[in-house]
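Just scan this pair:

***
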Amino acid sequence: MKELNPSITRSIADIKEPDKRKSDHTKTVSVPNSKAAAKLFGNLFELNISNGTFNPLVKADCQYIVDGHIIIDGYCKLKSITQLDNDDIEYNLVLFGSVANIFRELGEKYLNELDLSQWDHPFTREIQDKSWATEVYNSDSAGFVPFAYGTGYVYALADYGLTTDLNLFDIYHVPVSIYAREYMLALFSEAGYSWTSSFLDSNYFKHLVIPSDPASYALTAAEIDAKQFSANTPQFTSTGSTTSNNLPTGTSYSTPDTLIFTNEISDPSGVYNNATGEWTCSNGDFNLTALIDINATFTPSTGVSVVTTSDIEGRIELYADGVIINSQAFYITYDDYPISFSVGPRSTNTSPTYPEEEHTVTTSFSSAATAVQANLIPRNYNPPNRYLVSFQNQNLASGTVLTVKVKARYRGLNGNANHMFEDSSGSGYGGNATLDISVGAFYNKYNNEFPALGDTLKINKVIPKQIKQRDFLKSIINMHNLYVGVDPDNERNLIIEPREDFYTLDSINISEKIAQDREIEIKPVGNLNASEYLYKYKDDGDYYNKKYTENWSRSYGDRIINVLNDFTKTVKKTELIFSPTVSVAPPQKDKILPTIIGLDQNGQATTTKNNIRILYYDGLKPCSEVWRHQETFLNFTDNSTYPYMGHFDDPFNATLDLNFGLVNEVYYDDTTQAINVTNNNLYNLYHKKFIDEITSRDSNIVTAYVYLTPSDYKQWDFRKLYFFENAYFRLQKIEGYNPTSNDLTKCEFLQLKEANVFESQIIGLDGDSTGVTPDTSGTGGSGGVDDTEPKPVKGTKSASHVDGNNTTGRGVNYLGKNNYIAADAYYVDIVGDGNKVYSGASYITLKNSHNNIIDAKVTDVTLINTDGLTIEESNVTYIDGVKVNTAAISAPTAVSAISASQDVETDVRTYEVDTSGGDITLDFNLAIITYTEGQIWYFKKYAAANQLTIQSSGGTIDGAASISTTTQYNTIAIQYDGTNFIII
């Protein structure tokens, strides 16, 4: 049998490209044709012998075995077919080892295709709070599991441009972060792999998280559709048809009869039951409408010709869990006779005293025992016999069952059941009446943009999109300079460790296997073809990443290693799929948050698209200023600690940094406590020793020819030391090995000048910007390596925004030029130029006012048409440059939290309005309340749903009867000028 004569290459890493990892692989091997080969390869590679075509994109699992030793266990691909002289063929294959298999298994799959559904959980504040350090909800066990780093998810704080003052975080503004280890577990499991790795099981790795943008909470069209339904074709439950039973006569109504809308037009998730007429809703705010066209049939009990003198009174009722929550009355009458409970003659079609309209029928005589149909006279509705019952923006709890019912009664003249009909002489007769509802519809609309409280958050929904699993894995490997080996006892178990932990001290003496009659080539490792090594995260377009790059002409947290090399200017770049994340806090604040924001045209924070990030979650950190975690207006917690994540493990006393290098600038200050950072970063921890060793003049690449057997090839491990020539070496590559030949095999070894293990430094930010050089005690890097790091500048550079306005604060509004507003000033509203509002000032309103100074920490200041003042006291108002006599103005201090419409009171300063239950109107009622000239009120709308209206009975607000807002967290300030009200 013809030998395959393979040429196998096996390599741990290409030294010239340290981010590449290669598997065992062969050059082309030729397999002779046979019946078995033709059948096998024909099926595997879609081979057509007659025309020589095949599918070059197909891979097939394979093993190459010599003397009972599995030399290659992996996959193969058909490279070409060779036509021989004897009209036979050979199959030319390339074989690849199993290290590459996990990437093959991952293929083109995306990260959000991983199944992490065990971490689906109810969307509530309680769930978020517990994730910080207590418990994590696990849907597989339908309950909580104890908190542990690396398990599930955590709701750590971050600023995505959604919070107004960095002290109020709605649950929709806090990102859920999935632990990186959960991604790795799911990725390996679904690819059919396991790992042996102290690193992936380490405390450090368990702290790494992948945050999600809160924008990912938004419901998709399919998720909204799943909450909605639409049905038509109603029928009565009691009759199973569109016609009711005979209505009761007199004062008693019929038993409410459930309407079943039998034809489902749309109901993707089966929330409506067209057999029972029940809609079982999920959490959220809904609109609901039920409508029916009602006709009546009147049937006299006599054989003489008669006209009806009766009417039908009824109600359409909407039930929630058996309780009426809304209803609509209807009336059907003839127009010839005034009915005792109606107003006006029938011919005028005047509405009854009830607020609902009636529709009437024209007088119609009939022969004996013949039904009199109700022919409609137009009611103020189109069609006139259509009635509906509905609600808008009603918040419903999950599991609430809603139904539509109809009840009615048939009343004779003056309530006389024996006077339902009259003949031409005025004699009365009895009879019956029925309803017909052949036309109708029942449908809802879901109004929430985001999941409702208590809805299940599908965790896969928040996984970053368009990220391939293999790219994620590769970045984790490159980030930590991980080496990947195959477990010799289980090819689907990978041994994964950082370079320094991957190697062992086990050694093999191979002196007798080195061919002494062949040259041993020694060349310095320092001859690598790069003069610069660049380690970095992927650039992103959020405000602080762009700001840092503009200020410093480099990426946040990158690391540049310069190597003395006169022969090349090549830059070797290692770039992750993750983007850097800047940690930020306003001046004098100690709640340091990863910040991923944009800026609008006024320089105010907004949301922005962003790339995938990776951060370090380090639990709860103390903060000097209490912050609020809010589910609803009345459901919140005030916290003096916050769930911290960032690239430092601690922003003030860092011992670890997820960046490759120290940054030039930190975006927070040391007014609350000193800032100590560290150079214990990714480069120094995982890459420095490698670069120091391979760039050292004393490190060498040694190439020798070796007598290698199949047993040697199988047992030689890249993790071990190899002794020959009175020195120890690391095996790097086996090149061109043929297990079926006695030829020598070329092997490449690495003899390194051992560099010291990196020792981290704590660096206090004291204003000295001298560079930081890692302490290596003078060893390593002797080939001319410059790996100096910058010493960060503390505090933030001021940010100049639109029209010279300058602020990084939140909850501020300004219209004008060259205004300065301190970052920690809040509730500031300026219309004017050149004003300055200093640190801690609050509730500052400047209208048509210029070049004023508001001193630090003053509060409740209003300037109207006022220029050039310096305000050093709180609770003052200036109009036209004149201080208003505050003694003549009532000084309300109360803050009133309300959820219902009411008059505006004089003793309330601020109204916190919760519109989640419906529209709310607040009235400056001049008819009954005396307001004091100059008094100011603040109105803050907290809920996203519905509308807040402020009106003035007997007056105006900026010349209008009322003003309205639908914007969540919008604040309106209104002042009384003695006659009317003005917005300030």
The longest strand covers residues 615-632.
